[in-house]
Design a protein that fits this description.
By secondary structure, the protein is an alpha+beta fold. It is 48% helix and 16% strand.
Length: 352
């Protein structure tokens, strides 16, 4: 994800000046001039030398100049180099870690409420937008399936994943079934399909249906019929978003067009999930900046995200989303620890 140009070798002086420019811009939000850098006497060089270094860093693609008379701001490649090798990530305080663990692990045992709390913590502790995407129920491993009678042939199919996420779906059976028959069917499917994904279960049932009619008993035939209806692919993962209002008050979003693009982004759930899913690959925290993706490029935003999950089951993603001028030294360890704590909380919930 880090652009090739971010691997440029810099000498110690140039690295220190680049670090100074980026940290100053993150703090103040204004293009940084050579005079501002020169005031930091630790560099021990003249303003003219600093101007030459800044021009060279711009030529290498690490800085940009918004206007001819303005100072410089970090480019996407500059931010990536800063994150990779120039900044010093700050560990969360003991109080912050205890708050995160306490909120996530002492609350409700329901996974949906735990992930909702996690998105609130992300936003509250970062000052950015907190986003959390749950695993799609169709991609997770099944723990149980239950059919609850409603009226006539109408049933509620309740699917629970191994991580504890629940999906409810209204279906209609081919014939009216008693509660006792539904319990037997639910138990049969749970016993024979536990630990498999929904697509794998559907494939197994289709194979059973292809056998000769005489080889399929009445219970199995009804189980297959109900499972075919209840295990249809779901609408997709849930997306939790917190903190949009507080971000709209920030100076970076004074442009009405930019605000509209931001709101459109959150209205397009599929696009948002696609962005978060970029961070499912590999481990650890991933940082998406500007042109790294169409979503962040449109807004001039960054995403700091990582996956979370329980055991070997399919993972979800959480992260903070906001203007690229964010405090990466704090955001990266915050997202990392929240992902770890959320995984532990969901594991504990699944074992209750």
């Amino acid at each position: 994800m880090i652009p090739e140009r971010a691997h440029i070798e810099l000498n110690a002086r140039d690295r220190e000046i680049l670090r100074d420019i980026i940290s100053t811009f993150i703090l103040e939000g204004q293009p940084v001039s050579s005079r501002t850098v020169a005031r930091h006497v630790r560099h021990g060089v003249s303003a003219a030398t600093i101007r030459n270094v800044m021009a060279d860093l711009e030529e290498r693609g690490l800085l940009e100049q918004p206007h001819s008379s303005a100072g410089r701001v970090p480019s996407r490649a500059g931010y990536h180099l800063y994150i990779k090798s120039l900044m010093a990530a700050r560990a969360l305080s003991e109080d912050e870690r205890e708050r995160i663990d306490s909120d996530l692990q002492s609350g409700s045992a329901q996974p949906e409420k735990i992930v909702g709390l996690a998105s609130q913590l992300l936003s509250g502790l970062s000052g950015q937008i907190g986003i959390l995407v749950t695993p799609a129920i169709g991609d997770t491993l099944l723990r149980s399936i239950d059919f609850v009678p409603l009226s006539g042939r109408r049933l509620l199919c309740v699917v629970v994943s191994e991580a504890g996420f629940v999906e409810n779906k209204l279906i209609e059976a081919e014939e009216e079934l008693s509660r006792e028959e539904l319990i037997r069917i639910s138990n049969y499917l749970t016993e024979n399909c536990r630990g498999r994904t929904l697509p794998a279960i559907r494939e197994r049932l289709l194979m059973a249906m292809s056998e000769e009619r005489s080889q399929v008993d009445r219970l199995l035939a009804r189980a297959i019929s109900l499972a075919q209806r209840g295990l249809e692919p779901a609408a997709g993962p849930d997306v939790f978003v917190e903190g949009t209002t507080q971000l709209l008050a920030r100076g970076e979003l004074e442009d009405v067009t930019r605000v509209r693009r931001l709101l459109d982004t959150f209205a397009d759930r599929q696009r948002l999930v696609g962005l978060l899913n970029l961070c499912l690959e590999g481990g650890g925290v991933r940082v998406v900046i500007g042109a790294d993706s169409a979503v962040t490029s449109d807004l001039g935003f960054s995403l700091v995200a990582r996956s979370y999950g329980t055991g070997d089951s399919t993972r979800g993603t959480l992260g903070v989303f906001g203007p690229s001028r964010m405090n990466y030294e704090r955001m990266i360890p915050l997202v990392d620890y929240l992902g770890e704590s959320l995984s532990r909380a969901l594991e504990a919930s699944a074992n209750r």
